[in-house]
Amino acid sequence: TSARIIVDRDFTVGPVPRRLFGSFVEHMGRCVYTGIFEPGHPSADENGYRQDVLELTRELGVSIVRYPGGNFVSGYHWEDGIGPVEQRPRRLDGAWHTVETNAFGLHEFAGWAKKAGVEIMEAINLGTRGVEEARAIVEYANHPGGTYWSDLRIKNGAPEPFGIKVWNLGNELDGPWQIGHKTADEYGRLAQEAGKAMRLVDPSIELVAVGSSGRKMPTFGEWEHTVLSHAYDEVDYVSLHAYYQEHEGDYASFLASSNDMDRFIEEVISTVDAVKAKRKSTKQVNLSFDEWNVWYQTGLDTEDQPHIVEQRGIWREHPRLIEDTYNVTDAVVVGSFLNSLLRHGDRVTIANQAQLVNVIAPIRSEEGGPAWRQSIFWPFARMAELARGEILRTAATSDRFESSEYGDAPVVDVSSTYDEERGRVAVFLANRGLDESAEVTVSLRGLDATQVTRAEVLTIPDGGDRFTANTESTQDAVGLTRLEGVAIDEGGELRATLPALSWAVVEIA
Ligand code: AHR
Fold it and tell me: For the chain, which domains are there?
């Protein structure tokens, strides 16, 4: 396989939005309890935050974390999670058939976010609740003091406002599974009015309207159009959610699934801009891809599947839910999703991988036991660290492969950034060929970078196969190793050989 890539200093997409490297903590399964929070764990600090998970979160390079859901938020009372812990109510969470103890709430999350060095993206409940609660939580979180809600926050131990900038106006309300599911008209009006009331409390906030829960939703397109017809002037972003998996050995479609992510993004941009044009508006609404990942849900009947937990009819605290184990193939696909997001970074300015720990997550942890990195940790961590400055347009010609679900796709997938301040170019590459290595040349125009400062690759380890994964006992089976033989010739052309099924990063200074 061969691929030829051209990048040019003068052809840029825009600045790298730091919020592209976001993650998601939901009160679901073991993401919060025994994930980020486990009082009594050997690594827990005085607040019950697991230091091992905190360290991995910092290493992952996460910039912003969405909280507290997800489907969970559509039945959640945020007030249950504030005040003295022993007085907090135990509630049934219908979304995940779980008993919520409320031992962890807004203050605990804000404290954790500070330690992790991440911005908070707070979702409000527009499933069972409305305008009144929406403005109350903004007053509680962001108003300095001297009012009912802000003084209650101070009384509960936070004299300084949390200063939360980004707010999700609900979650997946287009989905019939959602508690408080709505039509686009119902939701659009509610989002507009809740957003207005929230902004009257704090005009500096940024609001995300619920978009489609997936490109395959029957209401996709129509939903965004109707919602924005009501709420365009009030909101700053519309959300997208997408999860992909390998179905019955169709690895070609799975490896090509970033084609679908590209299309999804471009279709939402078209819909948003159609509303803008119709209104003759000068305001731009951007995209918040606030749930994306690989997951293995369809067709599974294992103990950690939500429908099995529900069928059993047992209500438990933090049961294991969708704790997917990720392999080499998944890491390459996740790398191609990150490329897709970065290539669209002029419009997708927030993105959150779902989720952070245990639940479809790059980090896993066991109760009382260790925490470790899954294979998908690596492309995220390196891109979060090295994608700095400007996103470069990539002109790429690659051999292509066929897939039944998403059409044909380039074998080599790429994105690139240029950090003028540090004089560094980063190139992120995925070789989606299962059997063949790929000879790649990158022509670096107008960029006087001559030294390869880093070349790393994630691929099938010796003795493994494409299904090799990191588990509690083989924690570092899949990781990054040095990519040998990367060279730049005198004409400024970079040459690299990518092993079959691999994700690689090359940094040049
Ligand atoms: O991330 C898991 C779940 O997937 C979220 O709660 C929901 O929003 C989506 O359907």
Answer: 17-386 (3.20.20.80), 392-508 (2.60.40.1180)
